[in-house]
Amino acid sequence: MAACTVLAPLPAAAVPEPEPRERSVADLLTDLQRLYREAEEATETYNATEEKLKEKRAEVTRLDTALSRARLSLHDSRGAAGRLARQQYQSSTEISPYVRLLLARDPQHALEQGHVIGQLARERAKTLGRLTGSEHRADALARKARKALDDQLTLADRQKKDRDGVRKKLDDVQELLASLTAEQLARLAEFEEKGVEKAQEELTTSGALGEVEREPSQEGGKALAYARRQLGKPYEWGAEGPKTYDCSGLTSEAWAHAGTPIPRTSQEQWARLPRIELRDLRPGDLVIYFPEATHVAIYLGRGEVIEAPRTGEKVKVSPIASHPILGAVRPDEGGQAPATEARYAPVLSGS
After folding, report:
1. Sign of torsion, CA 167 173 176 178?
2. φ and ψ at residue 330, rounded to 5 degrees
3. Of the candidates 75, 128, 196, 216, which lies 20 to 30 Å from 223 by C-alpha distance?
4. CB within 8 A of 37, min separation 6: which ones?
5. Which helix (DSSP H) or strand (DSSP E) does residue 38 occupy?
């Protein structure tokens, strides 16, 4: 029998793994902008919860005050009812008004006494009615106060989760930035700036902003003046000034100082304020950005806005097309402002 030789398979030649391809600046910018947008969306969610929590705290305080008054009224009503009970007990052996009338020497006087007795009886009925009403009011207010307190605790727990969500998104931003070299960061900033310039040029040449440069209303001028005074102050999520701001914190405070309070968050500003066309923009109006309405800025005029942009930056003047525009709103819809005949001349500022 012929000997069989079993040949072991030769080991496959080691194939070197391809070196990871360096990500393009466009890809990096897309990721970074997405993370910033998610962080701002989480911030506005936090702000909305904070506003609800403020309202609920005020409701709890109001109900506690009303409950204290109701309990005081109940105490007074019970005291009056106690005095009534003692009076009834003390007069329980007296002859009835009907018999007193039959035996009276002066029936007219007896009738007058009966009228007084009837009036006293009605007052007693009112006293008992007030006692019953006070008890019902106190019970109802106590239930409302307990529910409001439960709602406040629920909102406080949600606020904590929202705060943790913001911090997680910001950590993601910092992690990406920390992974980039100085050269990549410089290229990223340059690429982003060129993208804004292109978007600004397309917007202004399209005629979407109109040809007439408008004057601000009286309130809009005040709001804009406030926003100007905040230039250079740091962005901080959840902040409403006076030292730091987030985007909607800046716009809501500006209009509050103008005497026209508006909703706290960019989503609520978009949802509840009167909307206007971009061609009708006047200084002081608000420009809302992104499909989810997660960013807002105040219109400065001539194609520029004042905004609190994002973490790591400061309140600044930016081109109106720095972010994808959703629309515009006017907090003082009835405010009158004259239109000038000055032709629109865009100022492309990346400052």
Report:
1. negative
2. -125, 110
3. 196
4. 290, 294, 295
5. helix 25-90
**Over the chain (351 residues), what is each successive 10-residue block's mean pLDDT?**
47 51 69 76 79 78 75 65 60 52 54 57 63 70 75 74 76 78 82 89 90 90 96 93 95 96 94 94 96 94 94 94 94 66 36 33
The CA–CA distances, whole Å, from 301 to 15, 201, 298 equal 61, 15, 9
Return the residue matching tokens 């990549």: 184
Task: Report residue 174 as tokens.
Answer: 């910092």
- For the chain, what are the domain ranges? 25-176, 214-333
CB 337 within 8 A of CB 214: yes
How many C-beta neighbours within 10 Å does residue 264 have? 22
Question: Residue 123: what pLDDT?
Answer: 64
pLDDT of 324: 93
- Pull the structure tokens for residue 219: 């309130």
| Distance, CA of 24 to chain centre | 38
- Check if the beta carbon of residue 298 is closer than 8 Å to that of residue 305: yes
Given the structure tokens 């500006």, which residue do they identify?
A: 254
Of the CA atoms within 13 Å of residue 141, those in its CB half-sphere come to 22
Q: Where are the beta strands (DSSP E) in the chain?
A: 212-214, 275-276, 286-289, 295-301, 304-307, 316-319, 325-329, 339-343
> 7 CB contacts (<8 Å, ≥6 apart)?
none
Whether the ω angle into residue 11 lies within 30 degrees of 0, i.e. cis, is: no
Q: Under CATH, what is the fold of the domain 25-176?
A: Helix Hairpins (1.10.287)
Which CATH number applies to 214-333: 3.30.450.40, 3.40.50.300, 3.10.150.10, 3.90.1720.10? 3.90.1720.10
CB 74 within 8 A of CB 134: yes
